Amino acid sequence: MSSAKGRTTIEVGADGVAIITIINPPVNSLSLDVLNSLKESYDQALRRDDVKAIVITGAQGKFSGGFDISAFGKIQGGNVAAPKPGFVSMEILCDTVAAARKPSVAAIDGLALGGGLEVAMGCHARISTPNAQLGLPELQLGIIPGFGGTQALPRLVGIAKALEMMLTSKPVRGQEAVSLGLVDAIASSNELLNTARRWALDILEGKRPWINSFYKTDKLEPLGEAREILKFARAQTRKRAPNLMHPLVCIDVIEEGIISGPRAGLWKEAEAFQGLLHSDTCKSLVHIFFAQRGTTKVPGVSDLGLKPRRINKVAILGGGLMGSGIATALILSNYPVILKEVNDKFLQAGIDRVKANLKSRVKKGNMSQEKYEKTFSLLKGALDYESFRDVDMVIEAVIENVSLKQQIFSDLEKFCPPHCILASNTSTIDLNLIGEKTKSQDRIIGAHFFSPAHVMPLLEIVRTQKTSPQVIVDLLDVGKKIKKTPVVVGNCTGFAVNRMFFPYTQAALLLVEHGTDIYQIDRAITKFGMPMGPFRLCDLVGFGVAIATGSQFVLNFPERTFKSMLIPLMQEDKRAGETTRRGFYAYDEKRKANPDPEIKKYVEKAREVSGVTIDPKLTKLSDKDIVEMIFFPVVNEACRVLDEGIAVKAADLDISAVMGMGFPPYRGGIMFWADSLGSKYICSRLEEWSNLYGGFFKPCSYLAQRAAKGAPLSLSEDPVKARL
Questions:
Q1: pLDDT band at 555, cuts 50/70/90?
Q2: What does pTM read for this prediction?
C-alpha cells in the first residue's frame, strides 16, 4: 500500500443514484482508512434527500482485492488498533448497508476477493463483468472471512458450494457466479455502471427483488442435509490438513449461522476472526505472503533503476527431464523456444516430453485443444547452433559434466549475440568453473529449476561475483513471467535449497545407523507437515541422484557430513528407489510404498562398515525429537548460508524451503519456524547432540553468537552485508 491514504468518493447523478467508489491502488484493498471512509460515504448517501439508491464500485476496473494484508502485521505487532469486533460485518455491512432503506447494488469488475466480495454481498444485488474473479481466499492466510462472508455466502450459493469456495480458496468467474446465484446479472465493463444504476432504481420501484443476503434462506439446504454436508466437510478437512485448526473453525462458524441465525453467526465469526488473527498459523502465512513478494528486492540489483530487457526468444540445451520441463514452462508463457539436442533420437524424445506435459494439461481440462496447438507451435527443435544467432537467452540443461559444460559455453559465446544471457541449470557445479574458458562472465548466471520444472514453483537465480545486475534483473522478470517465484542466491555448492537441505537426509541416515526406525522417521516428518519423509524422498528422486548430490557435500564440507554406506550397499543389490520398485520401501504395481522388512539387513551392514553402535536413547525417540534432530541441522546450515551472504535475507530462505522442499507454509519457513522455538533452545540441543554424536551437529558460529545474545536468527545485524 502506498503512503497515500486509501479513500472512497461519492458522486450523485441526476437519476438520484449515488456512486460510491473505492480508491486504493493497485487493487483497492480495504485498509482501515478505506473502511472508515466507506462508512462515512454510505451514511452521507442515506442522509441525503437527493439520493434514492446506491451503487458501490472500485476505481480503475477493480472492485476490491480484499482487506489490506499489511494491516494484519501491524495489528499483530500492536502498532495499530484492530477495528472492534463486528465493526465491519455488523455495523457497516449488516446493519447499515443491508438494512438500509435505500437499495444498493455492487458493480464488480476485475476482482472482488475476500473483504471485497463481502462488501458486495452486503449489497442488495450484484452486477459483474463476465471475467471478474469473485472469491473468499482468507483461509490461505490462516484466518476466516471476517466481514460477514461466512454467513452471506452460504445464503447466496448454498452451503456445499460456499464451503468449497472457502475451504479451497478458489475464486469463481463472473459468468459462473451468475449461475450460482452469487451475482444477479452480467454486463460488459463499459455497460457495468449503467446496468447497476438501473438495477438499483428497479429495486426501488419494485421491479426487481429487494434482497438482504444475511436473511435469504431459499438457497440453504434443509437442516438434516446441511448437517451431513458439514460433517463430510469436517472429515475431509481433518484428512487434508490435520495440523490446521482454522478450516474447522470456519466450518463451525458457518454452522452456527445456519442453526442459530445470521446474527449469532456474525458474532461467532467476529470472535473467531479476532482469535485467529493472533494465531501462529496466521502469523506464519502472512509472513510467507510478504516473503514471496519480497524475493525480487535485491540490494545492489533491484534498486538501481534498471529495466528488464525484452526476451523474445530462448534456446535450451538438452531435452532430458529438466530441459523439456523448462521448455514447457517457457512456451506456456508464450516464449518461443529452440530445443537443441545432439542427435535426432534425443531431440525427438525431448519434443515428445514437452508434448506429453501439454497433453496432460488438456486431459485434465486445464487447456483447450486450440491453446495446446498454439502453445506447442512455439517450440522448434535444432541439432546445431545455426538458429542461435538471434536468441536473447540460452539455458543449458545437459548432464553434470564439467568439461562438457565448459565446451558448450565456449561454443555459445561464438554463436549467440553479445547481449545474450548465458544461463546454466546446474545444481552442483560451480558457475565460475563453467564459464572459466569464456570472456563472457558478466552474462553467465545460474537458472536452477526444480524437478519437474514446469510444475515446481521455485527458481533459484545464481549470481557469481561477475554477473551483471542487468542480467539478474532480466532473469527475475522472466521468472515472474513464467509464474515462478525467483530467489537470488550466491554461488556455492548446492546454492540455497540443496545446501540447506543436505543435512536433512544425512541426519536421517545418522539416526538410522544409531538405532532409529526408518519408517518412524518418515512418519514423524510427514506428520510435521512435509509432503514426504527423507527416505521416501530418496526413493522418489532415485539413489543415483541422492549419491551424486550427497558426494558433493562430503567433498566440500567434510568436517560436518555424516558418511553412511547404507544407500551404496542397497545399490549394490540393484535397489535404486521407486524406479526399480525397491528402495527404502517396496513398491507395488500402483507405485504404492510399503515398508520392506529386508531393509534391516542393509542397516546392520552399514553399521558394521561405519563402526556405529546402537544408542538405546535413539531407538525410542518421540516424534518431536525426530523432527528436531532432522531439522535443526537444516537450520544450522541455513544460518551459514545467510552468514556467508549466499542468501540476501532470511525470508528468502523461508520461501526457498517452502517452495523448493515442501516445508509447511503454515510454519512460516525454516528460519521463521526456528525463531518461534528460539536460537538458545536450538543451539543448546545441537551442542548436546554434537557432544554425543560428533561434529555433524556442531552449531555454526552465527547460530552460537545469536544464541548467546538470545537474538533471533532472521534479523541480520548488518543488512548491507551481502557478500557473495
A1: confident
A2: 0.93
Count CB atoms within 10 A of the CB of residue 5. 14
Cα within 13 Å of Cα(107), Cβ side: 28
**SS3 for 668?**
coil
Please check whether residue 321 is in contact with residue 397, taking contact to mean a CB–CB distance below 8 angstroms: no
* 593-606 pLDDT, tens digit each: 999 999 999 999 99
- Which three cell numbers mark 124? 442488495
Asked if pLDDT for residue 529 goes beyond 70, the answer is yes
Non-local (6+) Cβ contacts of 164 within 8 A are 170
Mean pLDDT lowest among 90-99, 478-487, 714-723:
714-723
> Which ranges of 482-542 does DSSP label H, i.e. alpha helix?
497-513, 518-528, 534-541
List residues with catalytic annotation. Answer: 118, 138
Query: In this structure, are strands 314-317 and 393-396 parallel, antiparallel, or unpaired?
Result: parallel
Question: Among 281, 276, 166, 234, which residue's Cα sits nearest to residue 529?
Answer: 281
The number of angstroms, rounded, from the C-alpha of 4 to the middle of its chain's C-alpha atoms is 29
Bridge partners, residue 449, by sequence: 459
Summarize pLDDT for 199-217 with one digit per residue, the tens: 999 999 999 999 999 999 9
- The DSSP bridge partners found for residue 314 are 337, 393
On average, the pLDDT of the chain sits at 94
Phi/psi of residue 670, each to 5°? Answer: -65, -45
Cα(first)–Cα(last) distance of the chain, in Å? 32
Cα gap 167→151, rounded to integer Å: 14
In whole angstroms, how far apart are CA 575 and each of 216, 546, 562?
62, 13, 21
Q: What is the pLDDT of residue 84?
A: 86
Cell 522417521 identifies what position?
A: 521
Looking at residue 546, its pLDDT comes to 83
State the virtual CA torsion across 271, 276, 277, 280 in degrees, nearest 10: 160
Convert the pLDDT of each residue in 236-292 to its tens digit.
999 999 999 999 999 999 999 999 999 999 999 999 999 999 999 999 999 999 999
Q: pLDDT above 90 covers what percent of the chain?
A: 90
Cα separation values, 453 from 22, 39, 88, 255, 372, Å:
40, 48, 43, 42, 18
Map residue 305 onto helix, strand or coil: coil
Does the structure show a pLDDT above 80 at 122? yes
- Cell numbers at residue 615, please? 544408542
What is the chain's alpha carbon radius of gyration, rounded to the nearest angstrom? Answer: 29
Q: What is the dihedral of CA 160, 163, 169, 174, to 10 degrees?
A: 50
Nearest residue to 217 (alpha-carbon basis) of 255, 248, 262, 173: 262
Q: How far apart are CA 396 and CA 393, in angstroms?
A: 10
Statement: residue 4 has pLDDT above 70: no
| Beta carbons of 491 and 430 less than 8 angstroms apart | yes
Contact in structure between 99 and 90 (CB atoms under 8 Å):
no
Residues of the chain by 3-state class (helix, strand, coil), percent to 5:
55, 10, 35
What integer pLDDT is reported at residue 541 of this predicted model? 87
- 133 touches 111 (CB < 8 A): yes
Collapse the DSSP code of 444 into the 3-class scheme (helix H, G, I; strand E, B; otherwise coil) and give the result.
strand
Average pLDDT over residues 91-100: 93
Residue 112, strand partner residues: 64, 134
- Number of residues in the chain: 724
